[in-house]
Automatic annotation (TrEMBL):
Xref: InterPro entries: CheY-like_superfamily, NreC/VraR/RcsB-like_REC, Sig_transdc_resp-reg_C-effctor, Sig_transdc_resp-reg_receiver, Tscrpt_reg_LuxR_C, WalR-like
One Pfam entry name: GerE
Highest taxon listed in the record's lineage: Bacteria
Name of the protein: DNA-binding response regulator
CDD domains noted in UniProt: LuxR_C_like, REC_NarL-like
Keyword terms: DNA-binding, Phosphoprotein, Transcription, Transcription regulation
Domain HTH luxR-type: 151-216
Organism, scientific name: Streptomyces kronopolitis
GO molecular function: DNA binding
Residues found modified as 4-aspartylphosphate: D55
């Protein structure tokens, strides 16, 4: 079955461009469009898309609040949110990730990158370039703990190896890179990442990276 996509952007011309790109792919289907966050919520309830391509800065309700409502505890469906932004260092992107977005992509990204991002997010993975993960969290380090705060109790539920994996995820390493760093198989890394997400109640590795910084486990700027 085709991946059902909802386009959310306050610029009709951009929505038209995205639609043309996505409808050229046999496994993608654009099921609707919305011009602001409130319309997006209505469309998600009515159309039950798999992925919402979400702009951040929109009238009436911005993409951060819309993302929070779409992916929160009272969500109406399984939709994943892929945030679109004009700037790769947008403070709202961090808030969108905290709100539950599965990743973000620049609006001027190549068409094949946009298509691949939707497929990745639809499959339940996170879409966020490692370098961007670090830059985002480092740039907004002032909003995050200094590392001197007490470690949250939930962190103590992790094994020593799971903590190691979480630190590497926060640094933006892929499963393959983590496997090479720890001298284990990629399958083993996937298992550890799965355990980390389950124990901490997180939805994907993007939220895991944010958690690692917010808990003080990883300090902004540290290698």
């Amino acid at each position: 079955m085709a991946i059902r996509v909802l386009l959310v952007d306050d610029q009709p011309l951009l929505r038209t461009g995205f639609r043309m790109i996505l409808e050229a792919e046999q496994d993608l289907a654009v099921v609707g469009e919305a011009g602001d966050g409130l319309q997006a919520l209505e469309q998600v309830r009515a159309l039950q898309p798999d992925v919402v391509l979400m702009d951040i800065r929109m009238p009436r309700m911005d993409g951060v609040e819309a993302t929070r409502q779409i992916t929160g505890p009272a969500k109406d469906g399984p939709a994943k949110v892929l945030v679109l932004t004009t700037f790769d260092l947008d403070e709202y992107v961090v808030e969108a990730l905290r709100a539950g977005a599965s990743g973000f992509l620049l609006k001027d990204a190549p068409a094949d990158e946009l298509v691949q991002a939707i497929r990745v997010v639809a499959a339940g993975e996170a879409m966020l370039a490692p370098s961007i993960t670090r830059r985002l969290l480092d740039k907004y380090a002032g909003h995050l703990p200094s590392g001197e705060e007490s470690v949250p109790d939930t962190l103590h539920t992790l094994t020593e190896r799971e903590v190691e994996v979480l630190k590497l995820v926060a640094r933006g390493l892929s499963n393959a890179e983590i496997a090479a760093d720890l001298f284990v198989s990629e399958t083993t890394v996937k298992t550890h990442v799965g355990h980390v997400l389950t124990k901490l109640g997180l939805r994907d590795r993007v939220q895991a990276a944010v958690y690692a910084y917010e808990s003080g486990l990883v300090r902004p700027g540290a290698q």
